[in-house]
C-alpha cells in the first residue's frame, strides 16, 4: 500500500541517535500504529516492546535479528520481522526510508 487513508499523524517526531534516525507516528482508526521514518548511515541497536514488521521502502542496510549470527542484507526494498521484547542491530550504509508496523498479539 503506497498511502494510508483516514489516519491521524502525530505532529511530534521520534528522534534517535542524535537525529540520525527519525520517524513520525501514524495512528489508524482501530488504534494500531505505524511509524514512517528515515535512517542515515550508521550502526544502531533497537529494542522492541511489541512485535515489529519493518518495511524498507528504499535504501541499503544489514540487519542482525535476535538469535541469528548471519546479517541479512537489504538493498532497495525489503522486509524483516522482529519479535516482541527483543533487540536487533542495523548497519545502515545509505539513507534508508522505512515503515514500521507495531503488531499487538
UniProtKB/TrEMBL annotation:
One of its GO terms (cellular component) is cytosol. It is an enzyme of class 2 (transferase). This is Pyrimidine/purine nucleoside phosphorylase. Signal peptide: none annotated. InterPro entries: Ppnp, RmlC-like_jellyroll, RmlC_Cupin_sf. Belongs to the nucleoside phosphorylase PpnP family. Gene3D superfamilies: Jelly Rolls (2.60.120.10). Pfam families: Ppnp. The gene is ppnP. Catalyzes the phosphorolysis of diverse nucleosides, yielding D-ribose 1-phosphate and the respective free bases. Can use uridine, adenosine, guanosine, cytidine, thymidine, inosine and xanthosine as substrates. Also catalyzes the reverse reactions. The keyword Transferase applies. It catalyses: uridine + phosphate = alpha-D-ribose 1-phosphate + uracil; xanthosine + phosphate = alpha-D-ribose 1-phosphate + xanthine; adenosine + phosphate = alpha-D-ribose 1-phosphate + adenine; thymidine + phosphate = 2-deoxy-alpha-D-ribose 1-phosphate + thymine. Keywords: Glycosyltransferase, Transferase. GO terms for molecular function: purine-nucleoside phosphorylase activity; pyrimidine-nucleoside phosphorylase activity. Its EC number is 2.4.2.1, 2.4.2.2. CDD domains: cupin_PpnP-like (cd20296).
